[in-house]
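[Q] Does anyone have a clean structure-token version of this?
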Amino acid sequence: MNESLSKTIVELKNEFSNNNKGRSHIQEIIPTAPSEKLPIDKNDLNMLHNFAKNNSIYSSMYELEVLDIPCIVYEGDMSNYWLDSIKHDTSYAPFYPVWILSAYALALYTKKLGINEVVDIGSGDGRIAYCAKIVGIVSHGIEIDENLVLLQNTISSHTGVSYNTIVSDATQFDYSELNLSRPAFFISGLPEIGEMLSNSVISQIQSMPNVKKNSLIVLAGSHATRKYVTDNSKWGWGLLIDNFNLEVINTVTLPTYWTVDQPIDTPYIFTKFN
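[A] Here you go.
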């Protein structure tokens, strides 16, 4: 991924956030066409719009120019899906989606690293797995909540973008069933909230030598320094990274649902086993 793409997406979000007075629970923007600032493949861009238009989280849309880029703003409410997601064990992270544009940027970067498969753990409405599929990566979405998996399948059937959706507890799933060759595991959940899930999944990967040696682990971190937490190092994942002897390859900072009105965005930490 060209680093300028992620920076432009962040700039787009900041400009939108500073000047937008909408009151919807969730809002995000997608350009209507490729541009010099955001040179996204036209077909891929159409598929990003198809994802939003066929996702019941979004209930309205309107046109808006941001940074001189014509965009569509998608607005909606994910409260019901969020409530469904928190009914499961407290060790699992609730549904907090990354922006669709951000998911696409992450997929492009993952492809650039030579990854063959994406395993999206705690996949929510499937946007990371969806974006990985449209850029040519084999995708698996593992989600414990049946309603969110139903939403993923509905989006897939309406858009024609199909990937392997799995209703399962990711801490109990047998990853050897996926026949992975060079996978990237995207593990949902921020520091503190997602530690039990991350520890469990990484332990399983570590126990499979053939998978471990070719795997990337991608974590969503935080640039903020937080009070009363056990770990503020390495974007909040320092203890986990050190305990599993992971090497940080790179971080990519992008907008997420929870940072739309914040001055800082979410770092995605790409790591591998030493």
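[Q] Thanks! Anything notable?
[A] The longest strand covers residues 58-66.
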